[in-house]
Amino acid sequence: MNGKKIHPWAWIPSLYFAQGLPYEVVMRVAVVMYKRLGIANADIALYTSLLGIPWIIKPFWSPIVDILKTKRWWMVAMQLIIGAGMAGVALSIPAPFFFRATMAFFVLLAFSSATHDISIDGFYMLALTPFQQSYFIGIRSTFYRTAMITGQGILVMFAGWMEKVTESVPAAWCITFVLVAVLFVLLSVYHYFMLPRVETVKNKDAQTFKAVLHEFAGTFVSFFRKKGIAPAIAFFLLYRLSEAQLVKIASLFMLDKPHLGGLGLETGMVGFTYGTVGVIALVLGGITGGIAISLKGLKFWLAPMMIAMNLPNLVYVYLSFTQTQALWLINAAVAVEQFGYGFGFSAYLLFMIYMSDGPYKTAHYAICTALMALGLMLPGMVAGWLQEWLGYKLFFIWVMLCTVPPFFVLPFLHIHRHFGMKNSPK
Question: Domain spanning 1-204: which CATH class is it, in words?
Answer without folding.
Answer: mainly alpha
